[in-house]
Amino acid sequence: MKKLTALLASATMALSLVGCSAGKTYTGEAYGHDKENPVKVTLTIKDKTITKVEVDASHETAGIGSKAADALPEQIVSANSLDVDGVSGATQTSKAIIEAATAALKQAGLEPSDLTSKKTTATKAKDIEETVDVVIVGAGGAGMTAAITASKAGSKVVIIESQPIVGGNTVRSTGGLNAAKTPYQDKNEFKEAAGVEKTLKTAAEKFADNATITALAATVKSQWDAYQANPQGYFDSPELMALDTMIGGKGKNDPELVKILTQNSAGAIEWLASIGAELKSVGAAGGASVKRIHRPVDENGKTAAVGAYIVPILEKNVHDAGVEVITDTTAKKLLTENGKVVGVEAEGKDGNKVVIHAKSVIMATGGFGANHEMVEKYKPELKGFATTNADGAQGQGIEMASEVGAATVDMDQIQIHPTVHIDEDGNAHLITEGVRGDGAILVNKEGKRFFDEVQTRDKVSAAEIQQTDGEAWLILDQKMVDGAAVYQGYVNSGYAKTGKTIEELAKNINVDPATLAETMKNWAEIYANKVDPEFGRTSFSAENALDQAPYYAILVKPGIHHTMGGLKINTNTEVLSEKGEVISGLFAAGEVTGGIHGANRLGGTAVTDIIVFGQIAGENAADFAK
């Protein structure tokens, strides 16, 4: 097998070097998102004409950078120019491809201006008008899940997506999917008794006046007592997940939607596995009493980013199902007839009109976290905060549905995530909550811990804002980086400072070495005893004691992450009017909806949300179309 691989590699190299009648090849490199592994571009050039472009962006983010690698070669060859549009949402990779191509040109003794451009005046794209059973607005996780489900139910489905690539915010998700009572949980030893007790105590002391939380706590207490009497498997239940979700959401959640979410969470893991996406690794996340965030693992057994993993699989299943996806097309308004929603009117990037008539419409347009004006309208105190959201999270789905009478809920509930890294170019990058769940700690610029790192996002963010410059350092060690491809990616992307010792790390982040060393010494004692007397942390990684050099520190601050508010839906995902009545033919799933997460979303629950409610929306929209 090794000999065969070597022969194939030699043959490939030989083909790439052929340059007689086909032209000569030249290769250039440039760094994109990954600062350790460059993007490589090979140009085949003949008579100052680029005849072929090959891009190796294998270390760039799947589903984001890979899309730029797919799209730009054809544009460059067609135009015989490097003056082409990058892919929205994949700016860093697009820029690297152009820079690498420029370097390749220079190897050929050419400048970009030496190429004879074949650019022509673009003709306006033709108007489109179609009739289908179900039209879905938005090709993120919820939209694609709904499309797959509706198609399998026999519906003809079209998806309209405003961006040039699918994935929405889902492809940016690095954490995992929260699910209760799964076979993967049972492969772990249960060591989270303190977390369960803490949650029950919180319910009794802080939410005694909330009937839903009180009832859930009573059920969980009964389950917990039974488990302690006969401890088989790993302890968790949909009710404990619901209790965590309600407490995390400060009791503002819609209890019926939370019940649907948690009771179907294990089913979401099964459904993803059925389409080729397995989430085998189980870890801890903020606000969860026990380990229930499910994550993918790569070919080396390392945990990987959930979004970059599931989005390409969802996209493949969408295409395999024969679903038409119309990208670069922004929905403008919902079509109605006699009080029913009967389609969507949209506009393509070239200004062409796109009209899709349908028996059912599913809104899966995401939230409004990238629309700063809308964020400031509902929460003025967030003015100036960076956002982790994809460009398409503009809230247009909420506005369109509101125009036909849809009710909204919790619009002022906007989450800031405590671990957002701002790079030197001012771009915001989400650092997954899983880092803290896997054992990392937060220290301020004085080198001291200041809060329970795995508390809910709102509380950790609030504590972080109170620190010097409203920032903190997230501390990891080599064992953590070795165990997760995601964490290695942070290092490769240049987000982290490093040190061979704690003292060296301290100097590199301008923190007093003695203070940071003392903090780490105290943490070692806390970890060994599994007791945090000062901040009450109860979640401790079984594998990561944070004691293996070299050490890493990532500067983080809170950033706009999730909008909990949105369209009001019932448990069938039907959109409700201001009067509480069903708007016939209109469904919604994902971050475009409100009520599920209340005042604060727990890490890992958004992916549960899009898969669970995406399936429900797809199934019910297909049934309605029949």
Describe this structure in words.
With 626 residues, the protein is α+β, with helices and mostly antiparallel strands. The protein contains 19 helices and 22 strands. The strands form five sheets. Strands 4, 5, 9, 10, 11, 12, 21 and 22 form an eight-stranded mixed sheet that branches. α5 (193-206) packs antiparallel against α6 and α7 (238-248) crosses α8. It is globular, with a radius of gyration of 25 Å. It starts with a helix and ends with a helix.
Oligomer: single chain
What distance lies between the first and last C-alpha atoms, to the nearest angstrom? 53 Å
Overall pLDDT confidence: 93
Tell me the fraction of residues in β-strands, as a range.
Answer: 15-25%
Q: What's the total count of β strands?
A: 22
Question: Could you estimate the helical fraction of the residues in percent?
Answer: 25-40%
Assign the structural class, choosing from mainly alpha, mainly beta, alpha/beta, alpha+beta, or little secondary structure. Answer: alpha+beta
Q: Low-confidence spans: pLDDT under 50, at least 5 residues? A: 1-21
Give the overall form.
globular
Specify Rg, calculated over alpha carbons: 25 Å
Count of discrete alpha- or pi-helical segments spanning 4 or more residues? 19
Main sheet, how many strands, which sense, barrel? Answer: 8 strands, mixed
Based on the model shown, name its key terms.
626 residues; alpha+beta; 22 strands; disordered N terminus
